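Schema walkthrough. Field components (list of strings):
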Amino acid sequence: MTIVSDKPDVSEEVPQGGNDSAKVPAAVKTRRGALAETGSPTVRPPAAAHLSDEQVAELGRELDAIKDDILAKRGASDAAYIRRMIKIQRGLEISGRAALLVSKNKAAWVTGTTLLSFAKILENMELGHNILHGQWDWMRDPDIHSTTWEWDFVTPARSWQHTHNDLHHRWTNVVGKDNDVGYNLLRMDADQEWKPFNLGNPLYNALLAPVFEWGIAIYDLELNDYKEGNKTKEALTKDLKALGRKALTQFTKDYAATPAVAMLTGSGKQALYGTLAANAVRNVWAHAVIFCGHFPEGTDTFTEEMVEGETRGDWYVRQMIGSANISGSKFMHLMTGNLSHQIEHHLFPDIPSNRYAEVAPKVQEICKRYGLPYTTGPIWKQVGSTWAKVFKLALPPKKA
Amino acid sequence: MIRLRKLARAASLLTTPLAPEDILSLFNPVFSARQLRGVVTRVVPETADSATIFFRPGRGWQAHLAGQWARIGVELDGVRHWRSYSLSAPAGKDPAITVSDMGAVSGTLVRNTKPGDVLFLAPPQGDFVLPEHPRPLLMLTAGSGITPVMSMIRTLVPHRPDSDVVLIHTARTPADAIFREELAELADQFPNFRVVHWFTGERGRLDFTSVAGLEQLCPDWRQRAAYACGPESFLDDAEALWEAETATAEPSKASLTIERFSTKLAGGEGHDGGLVTFEASDREVEADGDTPLLDVGEDAGVLMPSGCRMGICHSCLIPLRAGQVRDLRTDEVHGEPGQLIQTCVSAAAGPVNLDL
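Field assembly_structure (string):
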């Protein structure tokens, strides 16, 4: 359980619809954070400007119905799915590490490193990310629960849940509110002011990929909030300590304990290279998949005006046109932790990941009917598109 | 044991963020010490609607006293449900529960449990247990209320020739009376035990409104320590009778120990709202049926964990201690003790106790 009361109370910033008086009297306090069923934002994003208030409300109801349908079907087969995934992941992890213990043998090194890379990818994407979203909380199994799960990733699960589940998923692609737009490091949107620092965009991104877990860990510390006085020193110290403890256990496991045991067979150095390689492979893959979620050509970003007075339907619209999918095989979807269904994930962040595939065609059909973009493409195309943006936005905007 | 713990700590360096037991539980589910489990070893049908389930518990279980109960977790369509069941096995023997089909959870236990199945467990508890010093006893049970008393009888009667036990058990028909044959055999074999079966289908309800009925079945009931277990109304009647007796009679030896199956909060329906108690914070607030518990708590000055306030981020989860909540998104009223609820999208449906 995360007590986030020491964080700035962003909920107060939620607009009160048409009410232009600054403060609503306490006696008639509206439900904070709840989005209105009807109405319209100050400005609707260009891609959805052709929709009437009533159409957006209807779209919201259709998407609600899709979610209700999944919640009604959710049951024993889903529970069996996640437990099977956990078993497979643990099997890969043990066999990978076991092979690395004798990795003086080249074949053992390749096998071990490959298995461990797959184990780490599955662990972070299909298990960690999704369990930490609360997708499996409905099972009431304390071992597979968003409040108890810890992952094989350097950032502590609780810190990540705050910046990701709460801030990123609520303010998806709102420039100035969702720091995932560039992670405070890269210039990923034309609306972000250009500075000479941004010339290094491609270099920073290339350096970030193999150490992506550290990028996320530092990002989760919310150093900018601290600098701007929105985060207390106590809160930062607490987060730093948690990160220190987590990093120490992660390091010990991969770079000390595993090589130490492997030294018994004279494979210490090789085992160290193996765990280093597996972490790097996982980092590069996670970086690629996550960048494909919101940065490919065709995804929109939003201004703060566009979320003022946002209705439930508008919130759905923003999630759809601000996200991009990756098309591919079942295996590819699994390896991305079903984040290849980013659009569906952003609409319904807490439905079980194995259900996104069946939701996708329905969402795509709705987008088509309402004339909204539904961005998707094979992974090489989407990765290429994000890199194109990284290069393009390194340069200052052309003067008109 | 200490060496084992050291070994586990060393192994955890390699398994972090998992514990070694997470890996071991791949091979044997009972290995998890974080979640106590038991493997079903035998299932014995008792009547058409009840069965006794024997299980072998994992580490962390403690031996039960006769008359105690345990919380048993069962998965129904992927969702964990917890219910409390009395242990019917004698003290010192492998634990077993005797379950009567009265709902979805008990029905699944009675009908679908097979040897090899895994049950989730919480260690036995309860103070409905035998007296410390030997005393003549009177057991009053109705329906499935026999289960904890059966454990007491099995523990006491065959092993203590100096014991003196009378059991009055009521059931609808002979076919519905759990343990009927075993009780008859025990009564035959041991002179220190007498059983009276009262079948309500033939003779109507056992009348507790006056002492006359009881006097007839057990003339020396005033000399006995009495134990009663059964439905609410049965226990209320017994309680009233014993209260009247101890109030009027000169120093009386009569005593009554009661086991109630449950004390439920009166469940409010739909949009009623109710009294919300934040147990650890020691605050009570009256809430309506439409305000999220998160707002209720914050307005009462309770330090509430919170996040998105729209039901997507699961930062606001708090364990429910008692009562039910209504999901403001679906209108579904739900809640079981221990369940984690999303306070930002849940409102009180009747009185609610939260573990915060």
